[in-house]
Design a protein that fits this description.
This protein is about 0% helix and about 0% strand. It is largely without helices or strands and about 60 residues long. The N and C termini lie far apart (about 75 Å).
Length: about 60
């Protein structure tokens, strides 16, 4: 049997633990070095040709 609560202490069945400390904010994102997000070098990929009209590919687009 748990000890009775001290006088003046409202008993509500259980005690809630204190909320955890909020996580520290993530470090600021450092700017990437030059060229980090550079576009790929070279000609763009050639566009795939459209299939012929009689090519069946499972469904028809309206």
């Amino acid at each position: 049997m748990p000890d009775p609560p001290p006088p003046g202490h409202p008993h509500h069945g259980h005690h809630h633990p204190p909320p955890p400390d909020p996580a520290p904010p993530p470090p600021a994102h450092h700017a990437p070095p030059p060229g980090h997000h550079a576009p790929p070098v070279g000609p763009p990929e050639p566009h795939k040709p459209h299939p012929p009209p009689n090519h069946h590919h499972g469904h028809h687009h309206p």
